[in-house]
Amino acid sequence: MTEQQHRSGFVAIVGRANVGKSTLMNALIGQKLSIVSPKPHTTRHKLLGVLNGDDFQVALLDTPGFLRNGRDQLDAAMSRQMVSALADADLALLVVEPRMPGDVETKLMGQLAQAKTPTILVMNKIDTVAKMKLLPIMQHYYDALPFLEIVPVSGLDGEGLDTLLEQIVGHLPEQEAIFPPDMLTDRSMRFVASEIIREKVFLLYEQEIPYDVAVEVDEYAEREGTQPDLVRATIYVDKPSQKQLLIGKGGQALKEVGTQAREEIVEIVERPVFVELWVKVNPKWRRKAGFIQRTL
Ligand SMILES: Nc1nc2c(ncn2[C@@H]2O[C@H](COP(=O)(O)OP(=O)(O)OP(=O)(O)O)[C@@H](O)[C@H]2O)c(=O)[nH]1
Ligand SMILES: [Mg+2]
User: Fold this and answer.
1) Nearest-CA residue for atom 32 of ligand 1
2) Which domains does the chain carry?
């Protein structure tokens, strides 16, 4: 019997905002790690998720949606997160929706070609269109860039993901695992908790509020026995009016954020958790590099 070679490497997931990069990462990992919402620019960080198999290890890097013309320090920081994920990558997954490329896709393809990053095109959300519509779009992409593969998938219902994983592994270098086999991510529970809280803000509030919110976990205290773990976090907003909206009448809106976040954190740590939320105004924080570095 010939022994199969072990393959491993870094795989950067890039693409337009809202195309389903984080959903895809979670579906491949088989666990919710990266936050997801129907609003564009949910993800602000590069996020590692490690997927292990008998003869492979895939180090996936979720990234923020591509920003062409950044407006402020937060946008610039988000762009840098994507660039640094690509710099580390053995392979890129360019995630697109099942339609003809727009200017964002064209720009990204230019960048990938220039950097000579081996790329698989992942056509996501195929559950939303008739199959016959896919062929001309795939052909168009094949003509635009010599992709290693084009794989149609649905991160939502899982269609095509087995094929995608096979293709990813097949294009990784033959080498030993990079991370210990029990490692899922390099992020702390403190970070995960702050992201879960931010996701609830994205899901529960409209207009500019989610974009003007940053979350910092001030304390994450693990406790013993029946005593709940304590998560104390501050939600920063840009303007006093946003503070009122976030808190809501009688504190009801903020309470809902806390309840939903707590339920999700409990599912992960499998023990009782108490979430304490504070709201503070930090005017124009999106332009403050130091603050962004601290909360990103
Ligand atoms: N129908 C359908 N919806 C999907 C699929 N994948 C993701 N979505 C939805 O698309 C929206 C955006 O998903 P995300 O995973 O947050 O997308 P993203 O690319 O990470 O977005 P940003 O982090 O904002 O760049 C969410 O409402 C998802 O539920 C899919 O395969 N099919
Ligand atoms: Mg995302």
Assistant:
1) 125
2) 7-170 (3.40.50.300), 189-295 (3.30.300.20)
* 282 CB within 6 A, ligand 1: no
Question: Is any atom of ligand 1 closer than 6 Å to the C-beta of 37?
Answer: yes
Q: Is 206 exposed, middle or buried (0-12, 13-18, 19+ CB in 10 A)?
A: exposed
CA–centroid distance, residue 254 to ligand 2 (Å): 23
Nearest bound ligand to the CA of residue 122? 1
Question: Residue 22 pairs with which residues in a beta bridge?
Answer: none
Q: At what angle do helices 189-204 and 252-269 cross, to 10 degrees?
A: 140
pTM to 2 decimals? 0.96
Which residue has tokens 């924080």?
Answer: 285
The letter for the amino acid at 2 is T
For ligand 1, say whether the CB of 128 is within 6 Å of any of its atoms. Answer: yes
Measure Cα distances from 197 to 45, 108, 217 in Å. 15, 30, 9
| C-alpha span between 155 and 94 (Å, rounded) | 14
Pocket lining: 63 vs ligand 1, CB cutoff 6 Å: no
Q: Note whether 215 and 236 are within 8 A (CB).
A: yes
What digits encode the pLDDT tens for the residues 103-151? 999 999 999 999 999 999 999 999 999 999 999 999 999 999 999 999 9
Report yes or no: 178 and 8 within 8 Å, Cβ to Cβ: yes
Q: What are phi and psi of 97, to 5 degrees?
A: -90, 160
User: Could you give the CA distance from residue 12 to residue 244 in angstroms, rounded to a whole number?
Assistant: 39
Residues 70-112: pLDDT tens digits? 889 999 999 999 999 999 999 999 999 999 999 999 999 999 9
